[in-house]
Amino acid sequence: MKKYTQTKSVNSLTLFVFFVICVNANVAIASSQLMQKRIEINCQGPLQECPLLEQSLEIRPQKIYHYQQKFLLIEFEQALNLEKIRDYFNQSETPKRQQRQLLKMFLSTLNQKSLKHFQPTLSELTKRELIGRVQPLVINNSVLLELEPSNYEQVLRIVDSSNADHINKSKIIEKTAPLATQSSLQSSQQKAKKNAASLKDNSKAFSQLVFDKLAQQKASMDVTIALIDSGVSTQHQELHHLGHLKQYNPKDNSYEQKDTGFGHGTGVLSLLASSNQFQRSISVLPKANYLSCNGLPSGRYHYIWVVACYDWLLQQPRVDIAINSWLQPELQCNDELLYSLRALWLANTIPVFSAGNFGKYELTSRDPVNFKLFDDVPLISVGATTADFKPYADSSYGDNLCGNGVVSPTISTIGTELLVAHPFNRDSYQIVNGTSYSVALVAAAIAILIEQAPEAPLELIVKSLIENSDTIAEHPFLLKALNLQRSVRQLRQNNTQLSIMDD
């Protein structure tokens, strides 16, 4: 009888032998179990004692965000150094699906450890009946507490004092400003049309962008696109085929499908997912998979709800693209979303943002598009052009004031005179302008690139998109417009070369 002794130092050959033994013995191990075994081998023990996890920890100031004294979001002091995690994934050539699973396990384990330290405080708050809902958010290592406004000061004192012994001395308590009074959604000049019989459709724009050749003829698409917006409605005739589209509303912790932003989210979704069965071409990807998260209730930005949406996206089996047709209301060089956006990227989700409609303002940029995801990875911001690919005057462009050399937009495409569905009734439409809608078209282009090369690294997808765009203006700032056909051709070539190198 042979005995196999696994030493503490496990190399790649041992891992290979382990899988061969499993196959030869015809042992049926579920995918999740195999993933756990890989983690234990790489970590030389349980995930909770993983050197890789421990070596990637860093300390940050604890932050507390509040919303109308009804919610507290407590971000714990420990975080992952996501650049180190990214380096590990790149060096180990971890497959995409396993990369997402591994990142989720790391983030979840860290959050569980932090919650264990915080448990005495939670017990105290619960015992005094000061809080209701308790919701861990693993994506940024935090916990969301719901409470009565009358208990707010007392809860804050208990949270602050009870953490004094084990929270880093440099911690800060950050209370965000009251909810912005201006909308954060990036659309402009919406014209509601109740009778759409005489309206043009989007077929000319789609033809110019070559969507008609590369997307609409496909019977289905194995791509999942998520909208972080103000919710959507599928009651419109163009969207009724989506049926029970999954939507999460973090503010009320519900899954009711509703549009709270006066049709904005529904309009953006319709550019992607309309059935095109009512004598007009509205959308480019009716056969893709869609998710919705109401992270901007009533069209207004607050960090708590957006990061709760990102956490929800992380819990899904797969999200390829996260559409953010909005910006933070003010330019403050505020990178509060960057950590969660990096986590989404490492989970193989490409975030895409509006560049903004502040082209006629003195300061045109807004957060978070003033930042890069990583030094060599841009955060994609999308500007709007006219139908003939001329710069759209309202679209934001140019340098920002944050001193990091980021120029927005990353890429531009048609964002004017587009026809979208509006939830006023089941057959009402709007003609719209703005970067909210050009974002949807760039997201569709990214989806097509992913479909062309599902296992290609995200860096290669984004590089193919940006480097093959057309220069439409050089002064006062460089503006580049989407060239989907060239991007697809270059991705195929680069991905083939990459596959040959891997072999």
What's this model, at a glance?
The chain is of the alpha/beta class. It has 14 helices and 22 strands.
Explain what the structure shows.
- Keywords: Hydrolase, Protease, Serine protease.
- This is Peptidase S8/S53 domain-containing protein.
- GO terms for molecular function: serine-type endopeptidase activity.
- Residues 222-469 form the Peptidase S8/S53 domain.
- With 503 residues, this protein is of the alpha/beta class.
- The protein folds into three domains: 12-45, no CATH class; 59-162, 2-Layer Sandwich (Gyrase A, domain 2); 188-453, 3-Layer(aba) Sandwich (Rossmann fold), CATH 3.40.50.
- Helices cover 35% and strands 19% of the residues.
- Strands 9-10-8-11-12-15-18 form a seven-stranded parallel β-sheet, with helices on both faces. A four-stranded antiparallel β-sheet has the order 2-3-6-5, sandwiched between helices.
- Helix 12 runs parallel beside helix 14 (484-502).
- It is globular, with a radius of gyration of 24 Å.
The top-level CATH class of the largest domain is Alpha Beta
- Flag low-confidence runs: 1-30, 165-182
Describe the main β-sheet briefly: 7 strands, parallel
CATH architecture of the largest domain: 3-Layer(aba) Sandwich
How much strand content do the residues show?
A: 15-25%
Q: Classify the secondary structure makeup into a structural class.
A: alpha/beta
Give a topology summary.
Blueprint: H1 12-24, H2 31-43, H3 51-55, E1 57-59, E2 63-67, E3 71-75, E4 78-80, H4 82-92, H5 96-127, E5 131-137, E6 142-147, H6 152-162, E7 188-193, H7 203-208, H8 211-214, E8 224-229, E9 247-248, H9 264-273, E10 289-294, H10 303-315, E11 321-324, H11 338-346, E12 350-354, E13 372-374, E14 377-378, E15 380-385, E16 398-399, E17 407-408, E18 411-414, E19 418-422, E20 428-433, H12 435-452, H13 458-467, E21 470-473, E22 479-481, H14 484-502
Parallel strand pairs: 8-10, 8-11, 9-10, 11-12, 12-15, 15-18
Antiparallel strand pairs: 1-4, 2-3, 3-6, 5-6, 7-20, 13-14, 16-17, 19-20, 21-22
